[in-house]
Design goal:
The protein has 82 residues and is mostly helical. The protein is 62% helix and 0% strand. The longest helix is centred in the C-terminal third of the chain and has 14 residues.
């Protein structure tokens, strides 16, 4: 049988499983989570030109929130689109 090599993240998950940190969920809850993840999937690319000062301000605000500025912009667009 071929030995499977796990990366660092996979090893952390395995250790968590062995410690009993995960619990099974109902199928309905699993489906709800899967749909939420699918809705947030980023599947389009957007290229725009913006004012340099505006971009610097956005980057500053994103950093203060502890997120990447592209993630911050994506969330702003998502919020506005809804």
């Amino acid at each position: 049988m071929k030995k499977v090599r796990l990366n660092r993240g996979e090893k952390a998950i395995e250790k968590s499983l062995l410690r009993g940190e995960f619990r099974p969920v109902r199928r309905s809850e699993f489906d709800r989570i899967a749909k939420a993840i699918a809705r947030r999937k980023k599947d389009a690319v957007l290229n725009i030109r913006v004012n340099g000062q505006d971009l610097a301000s956005i980057k500053h605000k994103a950093k203060a929130l502890g997120v990447a500025y592209q993630t911050f912009l994506s969330e702003l667009i998502h919020h506005y689109a809804r």
